[in-house]
Structures are given as structure tokens and as C-alpha cells.
Amino acid sequence: MTPTHTSGRVAIPSLPTVLDAFNTAPPDEARGFLLDCLRSLRWADRIAAHRPYPTVEALLAASDEAAYDLTPVDLSEALAGETLPVLPDGAYVAAHMALDAAHAAYEARFGHAFVICLDGLPPAEALDHVLAGIRSRLANDPEEERVVAAEELRRLARGRLVSSLRGAGNCATSHSQPAPGT
Q1: pLDDT tens digits, residue range 29-63?
Q2: Which string of DSSP letters, residue by residue, matches 70-97?
Q3: Could you tell me the residue ranges of all domains in the chain?
Q4: Domain 17-166 CATH assignment equals 1.10.3330.10
Q5: pLDDT band for position 175 (50/70/90)?
Q6: Do 59 and 19 form a contact (C-beta atoms < 8 A)?
Q7: Which of 62-66, 133-137, 151-155, 168-172 has the lowest mean pLDDT?
Q8: Number of neighbouring beta carbons within 10 Å of residue 128
Q9: 9 strand-pairing partners
């Protein structure tokens, strides 16, 4: 087959993208990729089942929609896979102690890890932002906090998808356990 010529130029086929690889991956591989972004089996299965996505924006819209539809059980599953955000290098021991104490109070009140999306925040401001977030959200009633936590999980999933599709690993939280179902 000869390349198509237009205006004296040779048409070069485009290289496959990460989105192309996601769209054509076997179902278990796509599901594993998604579970690295949000630890909800229902969320991952729903997004994987609707492949292929024509654009990253379409994938992100599907991610948002699926995250908005998380049931209380799905939300609990996703929250169980989260841990505190990693502190920047050089954080003082006192900062670790303050964060550990605030998180313990939060977890005792709500029964799950504190989640917060730090996308776009300078690393030097992360600790203050996390501590302020925990302290202010401790005043929420449990139902109100589930709504806030669900929104933070949606934002985390979106950011993780974007980072993964760009090939970067910039997650605002780390996972303490394997993904559900793996």
C-alpha cells in the first residue's frame, strides 16, 4: 500500500496513544488501570464497559458520571483503598505528628481515610491544606462528609486518569492495599 499524497506531502499515520492502548486493552487490564485511579469495582467496570472513548475528554466525562453515581457501598469500597496524602520531602517530625493526630480524629469520626485532591497545589502548601481540610471537615456530620469525600474521590480519579494518560505518576494519595478484585 502506498502512502496517500496531499499537496506534495506524505501522510504519516498517527502513533498510538495511551488512550488507544486503554481502548484496546483486554477488559482485565483496562479494569486494573482504572482501579489504580479509584478503588471502586463498579466505577471501573462501568468505564471499561463503555470503551472505546473517542477522546480523553469523553473518558473524563464518563469517569465523572460514574463517580457521581457511586452508591454508599461503592463509596465505602473506594475510601477503603485510600490513605493520607504523602507529605513533601523535608516535612518536620512535628508536621507528621500533627497530620497523624488529625487523621486519627477524622478516621475515628467517619470510619475511613481522609481524602483530598491536591492537584495544582504547590507541594510547599500541601501540608497546611491537608491539615486545614481535616480540621474543617471534622465539623461535618457523617452524611455531609460522605458527599464531600465522594466529590474529592471524583476529583482524585479524574486527576489520576489524566496523569496516567500522560504517563506521569502524580497521585495526590497513595494506596495502602491492592486494588479490589485483584
Answers
A1: 999 999 999 999 999 999 999 999 999 999 999 99
A2: --HHHHHHHHHT--PPPPPTT--HHHHH
A3: 17-166
A4: yes
A5: very low
A6: yes
A7: 168-172
A8: 11
A9: 6
